[in-house]
Structure formats: structure tokens, C-alpha cells
Design a protein that fits this description.
mainly beta, Porin, 7% helix, 14-stranded antiparallel barrel
């Protein structure tokens, strides 16, 4: 029993990273784009194009600095199938951010350089004390930062290409109870911490084949996050300390590639529509493997099947220029879950979802602009996890307002 439970502890460390990547992957890297359902592959609005499509960055006018901040409010409830007990999260506010600098060289009107720093994954999920699934997780705190220097070049008046190198760094803190009891009746507890690094790239091409119509194609590569010195600490009765030794572990997990095709059409002088189709290569996450520093009869190196599937997401939105200064935006997105039946977990219980978004933008003369966005989604997933046998129904509500400040020069 101890061997199985111990493996669960470490497997949830990495499952939680991946679940967050899809579960709360809501394109928070640009407020103008976010207000339009997250569509931005073929619509070059601002320096956030460094993330959405490096090929379109050379078509963004002037130099600019763009700072984005979001506040994520998520609440999940779980109805246990067997006991009918309802548990819920008490998670703090998450604050993913993005910062961009886009610059044009004086001696080249076609070449632009940029730097993007953004947090594609970052939140804290904390369940109430003594909840039904406390042996699966009690708390998960996750932060990942991508740093992406980028080059964008305008080949012609209609075609732009771009490429960015990605350095990814992150950390995680995972806590859960262990089903062993001390003399005072307290369950054991596990706390896991680790840092991970990885490398990748972001490629894009931007094409304006006919007036008012734009096409974008991008590829963000898979990033393998390597954990070399993860640390695990356990609070258990002294008689079981040999079975649960503190120690280190190493592992690697793939953050999947994303291929995106985007279209934008300038319907009128005041209205632009945009559509993005994202294809995410989650199939790369088919096996979870661990190499533990301190092996015992209860802790052995493991390989476990995960069998995630590739998925599509569709993002559609539009903006309308109310005046020269004020812009209104609306959007909707539909995302399919990569998590097969039997693998749903309480870190961020994932499901197919529809995101509803809105936004406003305001230009202060020629140097400053602000953009605000708002996202709401709700989804439900029922299932039984094949490893923990935790069975029931999850319902999650997510509200995310965001704000960006842009300086143009």
C-alpha cells in the first residue's frame, strides 16, 4: 500500500503542471486579444504579437512597451459520488502577467527586435481542510515564466516572418495528506517542491494577400521541463520514516507544441473580426517517469501511462471603434480538454469549455493607451480517477479581469 500511495504523491506533482497548462490556458498574454476571445494570430494590434505571431510584429507601428496584468478568481466544487459530501476550494487570487518590448532599428524600416516575458502557467489551488480528496491534494502553487527574445522581419509590404527563442523557468509547491495516522490521530503530510527549466522556440508568418484580409500561421514548439533536484519532505509517524524518506528526484515532462492558424478581416473602417484555430500536441504526454534518489521497497523508479490526446481550440472575436480613442471588444472561445476519462484530477479539474470575453481600449493621444478585458467560463466534469479511485463531479467557475498599459514612442 505504501509503495502505491508514495508513487501517487510524485505523479500528482507533474499532473498538476500539465492540468494547469490546459485547465487555465485562456490566452492571457494580451488584453486586446483577450477581449476578442483570445484571437490574435492574424491581427497585429500591439507588441503582444511577439507571443501571438512573431511574423506580424514587424507590421506593428512604432516602438512600444506593453505591460499586462490579470487577476484570476477560480472556484471549484466537488460532489463525492460515494459519500455525497460537497467540498470546495479556497484558492487565493492568481496574478499571471505579460510584458513586451518591441523596437525598430533606425537603419532598417523592415526589421524589429522584441522581448517578451510572460506567465503561461501560474496559480494556486487550495482545497478546504479535511476535504474528501485530501489524499490526492490539499494545495498546489505553481509559477512558470517564459522569456522570449524575438526577431521579426517584413519581407514585403504583404509578408512578415518572425522567430523567438524561449527559455522557460518554473517552480511548484504541492501538498497533500498521507493515509497514515500518528498517536494523536493526525494524518501524515507530504510537501513537494521543485524547480524546472526548458527551452523552445516560437515561429510565425503573417500574410496580407488582399486588402482587408490577413492570415497568420504560427508554431510554438514543445518545451521539455527538466526537474533535476526536486525535494520531497514528509511528516509521518517515526515507525514509517524509513518508508517515506526525505530526498530528491529527477524527471522531465513535455509542455506541448501549439500550431495555430488565424484569420482577420477588416469588415468596415470601424470593425475587425478575427478567428484563431489552435492545435495542441498533448499526445506528447503519454508517459510519466520518475527517477528517485532514495529508493526503498515503497519507493521505486516508475513509468506510468497518461495517454493524453491532441486537442483543438477555436477563438473568435471582433472589435469596434466607437471613436478615435475608444474601442469595444467581444469574443468567445471553445476549447476541448486533452484529459481522457479516468485521468481527471482535483488540481484543476479539466473539461471542454466555452470562454466568454469582453474588453475596452482607450488611446490617450499618441503615446499612451490602456486596454481592459474580462473573461468568464464555467464547466463541469464527472469521472473516476483510475489511480486514486476518487469519484464524483467537479464544477468550476473562473472569472479573470485584466488590464494593460501601453507606451508608444
Amino acid at each position: 500500500m505504501f509503495q502505491i500511495k508514495y508513487v501517487f504523491i510524485f505523479s500528482f506533482f507533474f499532473i498538476s503542471l500539465l492540468i494547469n497548462a490546459q485547465g487555465f490556458q485562456v490566452n492571457l498574454q494580451g488584453q486586446a486579444q483577450q477581449g476578442m476571445g483570445g484571437a490574435g494570430i492574424a491581427y497585429a494590434q500591439d507588441a503582444a504579437s511577439l507571443f501571438f505571431n512573431p511574423g506580424s510584429s514587424s507590421f506593428v507601428k512604432g516602438n512600444s512597451i506593453n505591460i499586462n496584468a490579470n487577476a484570476g478568481f477560480a472556484n471549484s466544487k466537488f460532489l463525492d459520488k460515494n459519500t455525497h459530501i460537497i467540498s470546495e476550494t479556497k484558492s487565493p487570487t492568481s496574478t499571471p502577467f505579460a510584458a513586451y518590448g518591441l523596437f525598430q532599428l533606425k537603419d532598417s524600416a523592415n526589421l524589429k527586435l522584441g522581448l517578451a516575458v510572460y506567465t503561461p502557467f501560474g496559480s494556486t489551488v487550495q482545497w478546504q481542510d479535511n476535504w474528501t480528496g485530501r489524499f490526492a491534494i490539499t494545495k498546489l502553487q505553481l509559477l512558470a515564466i517564459y522569456i522570449q527574445p524575438t526577431v521579426s522581419y517584413k519581407l514585403t509590404k504583404k509578408i512578415g516572418i518572425g522567430a523567438g527563442f524561449i527559455f522557460a523557468t518554473g517552480k511548484v509547491n504541492l501538498q497533500k495528506d498521507i493515509p497514515v495516522i500518528d498517536v494523536n490521530g493526525n494524518y501524515g503530510h507530504a510537501e513537494l517542491e521543485g524547480k524546472a527549466n526548458g527551452y523552445g522556440y516560437n515561429l510565425g508568418i503573417y500574410y496580407n494577400p488582399i486588402p482587408k484580409f490577413f492570415i497568420g500561421l504560427t508554431y510554438r514548439s514543445q518545451v521539455n521541463m527538466n526537474v533535476k533536484n526536486g525535494e520531497a519532505k514528509f511528516t509521518v509517524p517515526s515507525s514509517l520514516s524509513v518508508n517515506f524518506p526525505d530526498g530528491k528526484f529527477t524527471s522531465s515532462l513535455p509542455l506541448p507544441s501549439v500550431t495555430s492558424l488565424g484569420f482577420a478581416y477588416k469588415l468596415t473602417l470601424k470593425t475587425t473580426l478575427a478567428l484563431d484555430i489552435n492545435y495542441t500536441g498533448w499526445k506528447a504526454y503519454d508517459t510519466l517517469a520518475f527517477d528517485y534518489e532514495n529508493n526503498t521497497t515503497s519507493l521505486i523508479d516508475t513509468k506510468s501511462a497518461r495517454n493524453y490526446k491532441n486537442t483543438f481550440a477555436f477563438r473568435f472575436g471582433g472589435d469596434y471603434k466607437i471613436s478615435e480613442q475608444l474601442i469595444a471588444r467581444l469574443g468567445i472561445a471553445f476549447a476541448l480538454s486533452p484529459v481522457p476519462d479516468g485521468y481527471v484530477t482535483p488540481e484543476t479539474p479539466d473539461a471542454n469549455r466555452i470562454n466568454y470575453t469582453a474588453g475596452l481600449g482607450y488611446n490617450f493621444k499618441k503615446h499612451f493607451a490602456i486596454n481592459a478585458s474580462f473573461l468568464f467560463t464555467t464547466f463541469k466534469r464527472e469521472g473516476t480517477n483510475i489511480e486514486t479511485n476518487l469519484s464524483g463531479t467537479y464544477k468550476t467557475n473562473v472569472v479573470i479581469p485584466g488590464l494593460s498599459i501601453i507606451y508608444k514612442f
